[in-house]
Specification:
Layout (H helix, E strand, L loop, with lengths): L1 H5 L4 E2 H10 L6 H15 L2 E6 L2 E6 L4 H9 L2
Antiparallel strand pairs: 1-3, 2-3
Helix pairs in contact: 2-3
Protein name: DUF2551 domain-containing protein
Length: 74
């Protein structure tokens, strides 16, 4: 999921779910929603744009280098 956000795009929870579901991950929509929500509220690395029916999330610019560095080690 973090690789997806590193692309710099903005995603809804549904788009994140579709990305992970099409990959090699077994995920539930509620689980993905919870992960995205925790990344936003607890870690504070995502920004949220509340638009109409869906929240749109993106990785905050200040955290892109840190997240990229962490992912290089895994």
């Amino acid at each position: 999921m973090l690789n997806l956000f590193l692309t710099g795009d903005k995603f809804t929870t549904g788009e994140v779910y579709d990305y992970l579901d099409k990959g090699r991950f077994e995920v539930s929509y509620r689980g993905v929603s919870a992960m995205v929500g925790l990344m936003n509220t607890r870690l504070g690395i995502l920004s949220i744009n509340v638009t109409g029916d869906h929240n749109v999330y993106s990785l905050k610019e200040t955290y892109k280098n840190i997240v990229g560095s962490v992912l290089e080690n895994y």
